Amino acid sequence: MLLLLPAAAVFVLFLVLPLLTVVEESFRTFTPGRIGAVAGAPLTTENYTELFVPVYGRYFLQTYVLAFIASVIAIIIAFPIAYYIARNASAGIRKIWISALVGLMFLSSLVRIYAIQLTFGSVGILAPIMAFFGVNMNGGPYINFVIIIGLLHYEIPMSILIVIGAILNLNPRLTEAAQSLGASALASHLTVTIPLCIKGLVSAFLVSMTLGVSAFAIPWILGRGRVLFISNLIYSRFSEVANYSSGAAISIVMIVLSLLMIFILSRLTTLLDRT
User: Fold this and answer.
1) Angle between helices 91-105 and 140-168 (to 10 degrees)
2) Beta-bridge mates of residue 28
3) 169-183, pLDDT tens digit by residue?
4) How far apart are CA 209 and CA 264, in angstroms?
């Protein structure tokens, strides 16, 4: 137990204490014109009740919906690629794939975002093609599409790396046995491979959702000020209007919603694993 004390002290100092400070700030009354709440300001729940205003709901809705769509697409794309790397690629090719995927994670986020903007933006190289097909590149649906593309840049490589581990731990003879008993390749993967990899898939989904929900620069740049995520709203509260209390309350609600999502998915995964 004594060996745990240094690690526990670091955990409390750098994680628990800042979070408790945010919780305490979220219940303080904010006086307009000041930077943050006054020391010893009266406690209030107004910072939380004001979040029931529809305009705040729009921020939460578009954040979680776009992050969810991007996460599902990332899993759908990542799984067959991960399966190919884990099962069909030679050891050398597998190392090259994994090195390339890890290398992608080191690529600057701004480089990724502006590369997408130069490709899919209103003056990007695909703009003439979009104009030919009558796509409104300034419309909300197209902006949401570009943001999802931006999220996929992060989520697909990360999902592939996570799912590869799950597939490598799966006994390939189980799938081969299903096919030898008459199941088609598709049926054997749907009934054997995917159910046995469900924990890896859920882990990849949760990591993708975390990257999506906490995204800041992607909606900030690619959203053109018309689509903003919760992270952008928190930044605005802290940096632009100095309403630390409101920003802290939004942060706490975001944390609670994320923990609730993790709990529900964990329970579902346990139920699926038992069946």
Assistant:
1) 140
2) 43
3) 888 888 888 888 888
4) 14
Given a contact cutoff of 8 angstroms between Cβ atoms, the answer to whether 166 and 207 are in contact is no
CA distance 4 to 25: 30
**Predicted confidence (pLDDT) per residue in 212-245, tens digit:** 998 999 999 998 888 889 999 899 888 877 888 8
Q: Which residues have CB under 8 Å from 203's CB, separation 6+?
A: 162, 166
239-to-133, 214, 219, 242 alpha-carbon distances in Å: 41, 17, 17, 5
Tokens of residue 185, six digits? 């390749």
Between helix 140-168 and helix 109-120 the angle, nearest 10°, is 130
For every residue of 136-157, DSSP letters joined together read: -TTSHHHHHHHHHHHHHHHHHH
Per-residue burial over 188-215, b = 16 or more CB atoms within 10 Å of its CB, e = otherwise: bbeebbeebbeebbbbbbbbbbbbbbeb
> What is Dmax (Cα atoms) for the chain?
73
- Tell me the HSE value of 109 on the side-chain side, using a 13 A CA sphere: 14
